[in-house]
Amino acid sequence: MANKKKEEKIDYQKVAEELAQENANLNDALLRERADAENVRRRAQDEKVKMAGYHKASVVKELLPVIDNFERALKATPKDLEGNDYVRGIEGIVKQFAQTLNKLGVERIKTVGEHFDPELHEAVTMEEGEGEHEIVSEELQSGYKLGDEVIRHAMVRVKS
After folding, report:
1. Which ranges in the chain are annotated with CATH 3.90.20?
2. Does pTM top 0.85 for this prediction?
3. Start and end residues for every CATH 2.30.22.10 domain found in the chain
4. Strand partners, 141
């Protein structure tokens, strides 16, 4: 009977070490899973923000021809109608439209007098000049960007 007790003797130290190791492994796995879940949430949020920006840019791009036409109409105002209440009303609409675009984070690309930047400007014509650098001399169509993304390049005349 004494032999049987020796065989059944359990090494509690070894069992405790094995359980501690298994506990550590499970804790590590849990931490990895939590980190993976947080990364998935973060990527989903980033994707949501990116999609919202894409849709905002898409809607703004569809509205830009409207403001272009208002601005063209104002440029073509006959001299005898300048200062007319109707014309001032149209000017107010254009100003309100620009303010709304600004609130949405859309900004007009600077053109005349700026260095030509192919990432912002689209050169339609080139003129010979006396400078070493290509400078935008005239804006033919306004360009806009939302944050760092160009929604529409500015069409410009460049003097070199």
Report:
1. 11-103
2. no
3. 105-160
4. 155
pLDDT digits (tens, 9 = 90+) for 75-91: 999 999 888 999 999 99
Which string of DSSP letters, residue by residue, matches the chain? -HHHHHHH---HHHHHHHHHHHHHHHHHHHHHHHHHHHHHHHHHHHHHHHHHHHHHHHHHHHHHHHHHHHHHHHHT--GGGTT-HHHHHHHHHHHHHHHHHHHTTEEEPP-TTSBP-TTTEEEEEEE--SSSS-EEEEEEE--EEETTEEEEPEEEEEE-
Are the C-beta atoms of 151 and 64 separated by less than 8 Å? yes
pLDDT at 104: 93
Residues 64, 142: Cα–Cα separation, whole Å: 9
Q: Which residue has the tokens 């409207």?
A: 66
Domain 105-160 grouped into CATH 2.30.22.10: yes
Of the candidates 146, 150, 120, 143, the residue with the CA atom closest to the CA atom of residue 53? 146
Q: Which CATH architecture has domain 11-103?
A: Alpha-Beta Complex (3.90)
